[in-house]
Amino acid sequence: MLTSITESIFCCLMGKTTSVVLPVKSSDGKPADGFEFVEVKPGRVLRVRHILPERPATTEAQPEAGSSVHCKRKITVYRNGQLVIENLGDVLHSEILQCQNGDVEQCSTVEVELSDYTTAPSSPDSKPAPPLPTSDQQKPAPPPRRRRRRPKRTVLIDTERCISSCKGTHSDVALFFIHGVGGSLHIWGSQLDFFSRLGYEVIAPDLAGHGASTAPQIAAAYTFYALAEDLRAIFKRYSRKRNILIGHSYGVSFCTFLAHEYPEQVHKVVMINGGGPTALEPSLCSIFQLPSCVLHCLSPCLAWSFLKAGFARQGAKEKQLLKEGNAFNVSPFVLRAMMSGQYWPEGDEVYHAELTVPILLVHGMHDKFVPIDEDQRMAEILLFAFLKVIEEGSHMVMMECPETVNTLLHEFFLWEPDNSKKDAVTMVTASQTTADDATPVQTLAVANSNSSTGTLKVNKPLNK
């Protein structure tokens, strides 16, 4: 602790942090253990672990054709912040851990609307009550006409997506692992070893200022947009035809960004404890707004707090995992700049609702950073989402329960929808549709809420 205080005083006097992370180059200039250093911008170098397994050309399996899914939905935003989502295409139903393939069910009307309690009738009968008799036999005044709401913004998505099984023997599949604030590529150690042994090509970068990547001493280098452009360069360098993005915590936002920017190349996405579909905005009352020298003095307390909140158990094993994973081992300047640079107003609910890629949501039950309500909200907004909760895990669930997470991810990679049941779905008749439309909305109205995926579609105001 005394050493920490001395270094913080030196930090205040010199105006810079003492711990600056720089890349370590091998003696022969070649990447060791799959580690490479990529210069995404002049003077901005990221360390990347790239494992490309050897695949004999004679035994290489060809990728399967997959199943075509009709992705069609209408997203309407009203001026009062109300969000209405209508799913007009296919709805995927699947239990990832219980069956190999999911079935595709055509959805005639899945309209989600938050009722307007000030104008909605209080009873299912939409007929007005009979007027009371008056002495002068005057006709009662006609009821006021309800003004039709005008949408502020309407987004219509209508596309076909081919979803196929991604095996390790397929040469056109690449897995990208993106960590969050304070982490490094080492937190994915169990996943990188597991999937590389199965034959997958894996790519895991260190964000700027993390791990062995360069740490620029300027706050603008750690904004969301700066880091997103770094990962865009990494993605364009290593991407294949079918790419799967796996993100943790803050890294989920970058996976969402890449999936939105490259919908044809991103095949599937995994979000681990990523939170809800809200626009990013830094908190002005956070402890990370303190000066870097103060944060340096508080670094032992911050590390202890992260251990207590990030793991379900706080024992010697968890401390060793933090040490081996090089997690929460960044300079106070980088930590402060990362937390202050989390500004992404475009990443709201509409932005997430526009995604058509299948997404697996993994949540640790004991996570104290991300409540389960946020991941449930994410599953409600996304078009194709599967939420899985691991009861033994917390925020660092991929380090606490590596076998469970690896199995869950692998089965999601191999999963593909089954169109054989698509033709057997009973279509909704016109009379039933008319009857449903005549029923006034009193509460949250959701159609097809008996889905086994847990992707119940609801809506809330957009203001966060």
From TrEMBL:
GO molecular function: carboxylic ester hydrolase activity; lysophosphatidic acid acyltransferase activity
Keyword Cell membrane: no
Biased segments, Basic residues type: 144-153
Alphabetical GO biological process terms: lipid homeostasis; negative regulation of NLRP3 inflammasome complex assembly; phosphatidic acid biosynthetic process
InterPro entries per record: AB_hydrolase_1 (IPR000073), AB_hydrolase_fold (IPR029058), Epox_hydrolase-like (IPR000639)
UniProt superkingdom: Eukaryota
Spans annotated as Disordered: 117-153
A matching Pfam family: Abhydrolase_1
Entry annotated with the keyword Hydrolase: yes
Limits of the AB hydrolase-1 domain: 174-290
GO CC list: mitochondrion
Keywords from the UniProt entry: Hydrolase
Family per record: Belongs to the AB hydrolase superfamily.
PANTHER family in the cross-refs: PROTEIN ABHD8, RE40534P-RELATED
Name by which UniProt lists this protein: Protein ABHD8
Annotated organism of origin: Cyprinus carpio (Common carp)
Gene: abhd8a
